[in-house]
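Protein fold
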Amino acid sequence: MLRVFAALVLASVTACAAGGSSQAPDDTVQPATTTTELPVEVAASVAPSTTVQTPATTVPAETTTSSTVPARRQIVIHGAGDVSLDPSYVVSLASLGYDHAWSGLDGLFQGDDLTVVNLECPVSELGSPADKEFTFRCDPAALPSMLAAGVEVVNLGNNHSRDFGPEAMLDSLVQLGKVGIASVGVGVNAAAAHRPAIVEVGGWKIAVIGFGGVLPSPSWIATDDRPGMADGDTIATMVEAVRRADAVADLVVVTVHWGV
């Protein structure tokens, strides 16, 4: 059975930049999040463990536990929208530090089981700015605070991932991996861009897959021989990628960068 949780929320944390918008820099955005509680579903029964107590003068009986599948517990997933950690755009970060970006959440992401956000900037010092109105660049030094805040997966499939070219986009995967944050939505080719991040928590095997839509140019889309992002404007391609993810997981979380 195909189980899909679509993270199509437009929430944001303190350091938020509306992707593709023409708003001037603003560091007063208040946090907003969406919480989804998933029901417990156990595909097969788990036999309870048994403990046999015997007098100390006798040989203890063997204790056996039979289990066919791990027990699944209820889990909590948070999805957040456009997040920018560009100190030139969110100017308060320079004086208050990157921990300030997450201070308004009061530990919300730390207390859940999985948090997925849309990261609106390449995390790299490589590359040159693209010829577009707004170009964002996240500071790699901001990533430890993101991890500490409880973010496990980021979607890079959006209209800012190639703001500093494919080199910076691909370097973002390296920088995020160094601190232990998984990334989806972009890759060295189409197959890599559509590859899900796998998270195992609470007895669930979760596949997180990301897509990018509303892009500056079709050249930003990954192909068999071109780095880029997973196409978020072609429904058939998206459905096929979700089906492949579903084949290797109990639950599929889909995060898409869309807009008008």
Summary: The longest strand covers residues 75-83. Residues 1-5, 7-66 have pLDDT under 50 and may be disordered. The chain has one domain: 4-39+71-257. The CA atoms of residues 207 and 248 lie 8 Å apart.
